[in-house]
Write a structure and sequence with these properties.
Helix content is 64%, strand content 0%. The protein has helices at 6-14, 20-32, 39-54, 57-62.
Length: 69
């Protein structure tokens, strides 16, 4: 499994619903509201969703998610 970057972990913390699927759904909904010039956030969101889709629910539950902002 590919490691999450610092920025990806913070994004997960912001949109954490308690479940991997919930975070994916929340990020997908947020992504729909991004403006055309928010390309960096779009790329970050897409990479985070990709990594979340590639992992299991059990692996997500084992993540130590503490925001650093």
């Amino acid at each position: 499994m590919e490691e999450f970057t610092f920025e990806e972990r913070n994004l997960i913390c912001i949109y954490n619903t308690g479940t991997r699927k919930g975070v994916i759904t929340a990020l997908e909904e947020m992504r729909e509201d991004l403006e055309a010039d928010e390309t960096e956030l779009l790329e970050l969101t897409n990479s985070t969703i990709g990594k979340l889709n590639a992992m299991t629910d059990n692996a997500f539950e084992e993540l130590e998610l503490y925001p650093d902002f």
